[in-house]
Amino acid sequence: MRVTVFGASGLLGQALVQALKDETVTALTSKDGDLRDTVRVQQAIRTSRPDWIILAAAYTDVDGCETNRGLAFAVNCEGAINVANAAREIGSRLLFVSTDYIFDGAKTSPYEAGDARNPINVYGESKARAEERLLEIMPDVCIVRTSWLFGIGGKSFPSAILALAARHSEIPVVSDQRGCPTFTSDLAPVLVQLCRKSALGIVHATNSGSCTRYHMAREIVRIARLATVVKPVRTAEFPRPARRPAYSVLSPASLHALGIQMPEWQDALRRYLAAAPTQP
Ligand SMILES: NC(=O)c1ccc[n+]([C@@H]2O[C@H](COP(=O)([O-])OP(=O)(O)OC[C@H]3O[C@@H](n4cnc5c(N)ncnc54)[C@H](OP(=O)(O)O)[C@@H]3O)[C@@H](O)[C@H]2O)c1
Asked: Lower CB count within 10 Å: N or C terminus of the chain?
């Protein structure tokens, strides 16, 4: 396959480039062209002429999106539209990486791929709007929603917990947000498989199982054999600019229907911690 990856320097993008090592890959970062630059995006796609484009580039600072609404929509929505239009022009397929944050978190059972979008923060709004527009522009787009990414080569929740645990004997972590942690090294090969299977429509892809941030932090500390105590706290005690859904567990039914299973998040965490560089 010829694959063009937008966001190749990101947490997921780095794992994608690794997972695509036996394919013909064009790996693009923001330095190769900004998603907001229609002409550059078009040139990059015309030049690489991929079978598939994997759009893993985004403005992912969830709190930053609240104060930079224009930037969030320009990159996450208009940028994605630029890619879709250029893909359609040359007949490339497009896999768009989306997020659990397009849901409001009001459900108490896993979100299915067909459930209604109702984002509660600007980041989620920008991704939800992008999903809607891409489905209009390219009916055969594949939208893969994932959640709570962690991986080698960048900051993520486990690396933050390890850094805090190295400095404090007790760390407070919110116990009223539940989701599905996902290891980029598990997700990237699944995205490649979805391309090979010519998947289309909306697919939910996360490591299996779910937990709260508090439970995840406890598991990180336990696996790393640290003495730090993890203390459960309520989200309301730690106000952030962006609201987060209290429950954003994604059902794996859409992935299972394509014959793909993903490992449990605890197993993924063990492999991540074994491979991650020692924390500061
Ligand atoms: N992180 C999560 O927990 C999470 C959860 C659910 C879904 N997702 C989605 O998964 C995808 C990958 O996320 P990630 O955590 O790997 O992201 P990340 O580490 O923040 O990387 C973002 C990537 O996007 C590129 N980028 C940012 N702004 C750009 C622009 N204006 N033009 C072109 N490229 C730009 C960055 O390039 P430079 O390095 O050159 O700036 C980088 O390669 C995103 O679509 C995100 O919405 C993430």
From this structure: C
